[in-house]
């Protein structure tokens, strides 16, 4: 059976929307996009590199898969993350897509994400990692499918935006298994489901 690990950047108030660019996700009138890059430093890059160097398959929701495909599929920049993202098997959970042929090594998981991901987890194969994909993560969390979270907790409060956990999230306990503080004050904390 595979494990499922989530890596997610969040603010102190739990916002996960629009980390990378001002235009990344403006749903709901969100106007604080691009809040994350100024906190990137060598410590964060080294920690993310450790995760990217581990073998495993990736799992995305539709929106994140499309965004990542545009950013990474045709990139030839020598960035080690580019090679990892393009080379990894990528599963995309979607109820609206008809194929995932637009990005190499991608496999469509159609229909209900909790059901299809549970079936995928039950197979033999590499562990699964999720980056971003907040709506997908909330549904997988509610179904009890997330084994670990690595949260990059940024030292700011936005006061608006989509949060990782909301009123529908079930009570779940975790154990802190590792933590690192970056030079910019980001706490990178890994939690395992208790």
Automatic annotation (TrEMBL):
InterPro entries with a match to the protein in the record: DHFR-like_dom_sf, RibDG_C
Domain Bacterial bifunctional deaminase-reductase C-terminal residue range list: 3-187
Compositionally biased tracts (Basic and acidic residues): 21-30
Pfam families the UniProt entry points to: RibD_C (PF01872)
Origin superkingdom: Bacteria
Annotated segments matching region Disordered: 15-34
Name of the protein: Dihydrofolate reductase family protein
Species per Swiss-Prot/TrEMBL record: Microlunatus aurantiacus
Organism ancestry: Bacteria, Bacillati, Actinomycetota, Actinomycetes, Propionibacteriales
């Amino acid at each position: 059976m595979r494990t499922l690990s989530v890596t997610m950047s969040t603010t102190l108030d739990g916002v996960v929307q629009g980390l990378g660019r001002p235009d990344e996700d403006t749903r709901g009138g969100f106007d604080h996009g691009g809040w994350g890059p100024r906190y990137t430093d060598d410590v964060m890059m080294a920690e993310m590199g450790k995760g990217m160097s581990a073998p495993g398959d990736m799992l995305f929701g539709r929106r994140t898969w499309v965004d990542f495909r545009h950013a990474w599929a045709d990139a030839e920049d020598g960035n080690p993350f580019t090679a990892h993202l393009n080379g990894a098997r990528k599963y995309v959970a979607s109820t609206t897509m008809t194929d995932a042929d637009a990005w190499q090594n991608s496999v469509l998981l159609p229909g209900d994400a909790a059901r299809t991901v549970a079936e995928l987890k039950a197979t033999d194969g590499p562990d699964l990692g999720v980056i971003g994909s907040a709506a997908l993560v909330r549904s997988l969390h509610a179904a009890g499918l997330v084994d670990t979270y690595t949260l990059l907790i940024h030292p700011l409060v936005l006061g608006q935006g989509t949060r990782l956990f909301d009123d529908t999230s079930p009570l779940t306990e975790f154990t802190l298994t590792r933590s690192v503080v970056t030079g910019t004050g980001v706490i990178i904390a890994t939690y395992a489901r208790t």
